[in-house]
Amino acid sequence: MTMGLLYDTYRVMKGQTGLRGWLVIICDLLFWASCIFLVFGTLLRVNDGIVRVYLFLGMGIGAWFYFALLHSFYIKWFLRLINLVKAIYRFIVRLIQVIVIKPIIFIYKTIIALVVAVVLFLWKVATFAYSLILKLVTPIGKQSAKLSKQIYSGSKKKGAGILSRLAKLFKRKRHKKKDDDDEDEDKIE
Q1: Which residue, among 16, 11, 24, 18, has the nearest Cα to 84 in the 3D structure?
Q2: How far is Cα 39 from Cα 33, in angstroms, rounded to an integer?
Q3: How far apart are CA 186 and CA 11, in angstroms?
């Protein structure tokens, strides 16, 4: 009966997991090897490993009894148990998603959105300040360049005019002084 129960358990699990190809062959070999070890291990403990005909008769009657009476009940019960375990698993996964993962994702997205918003805001403020400073400084720079050219050219002209006036003035003073000195000399003589 135990071997029949294990066989049905293996068949249902194989169907639920969807094993294919070489994996099925390997799992089948492992199942039958474990059944052999189960039977001979039980024989070693029960009757020192002596194989008799009544052992095969007992195994056959047990297998017939299981497949005739308990097979359909066990498969229905085991499938319900598997579905219950799947439902509990889905519930736990969904609960973890709702309680843990979605809030973490929400917090992560909120933080990223805030960082992006702050960076964009600071970028806009910086570009606005730069353009404002540029607008304020550029006309001054253009005007100062024009003004400095005007001052330089005007001062060059005015400076030349002032120098020529000063030269004329000093020449007059020299001439005048010379004239005054000549007059003083004339008076002294």
Answers
A1: 16
A2: 10
A3: 151
Domain ranges of the chain: 2-99
Amino acid at 88: I
Determine the Cα–Cα distance for residues 32 and 30; give it in Å rounded to an integer: 6
* Average pLDDT score over residue span 4-16: 85
| DSSP classification of residue 21 | T
- How many CB atoms lie under 10 A from the CB of residue 105? 11
Residue 60 DSSP SS3: helix
**3-class secondary structure, 50:** coil
Residue 42: φ, ψ to 5°: -65, -40
Q: Which of 64, 2, 66 is nearest to 39 (CA)?
A: 2
Give 100-156 as a DSSP string.
IIHHHHHHHHHHHHHHHHHHHHHHHHHHHHHHHHHHHHHHHHHHHHHHHHHHHHHHH
Place of tokens 């001439």: 175
Question: In percent, how much of the chain has pLDDT > 70?
Answer: 72
Output the pLDDT for position 165: 64
Q: Check pLDDT > 80 for residue 184.
A: no
How many whole angstroms separate alpha carbon 47 and alpha carbon 51?
Answer: 8
Mean pLDDT within 106-125: 92
Inform me whether the pLDDT recorded for 183 exceeds 90: no
pLDDT on residue 173: 58
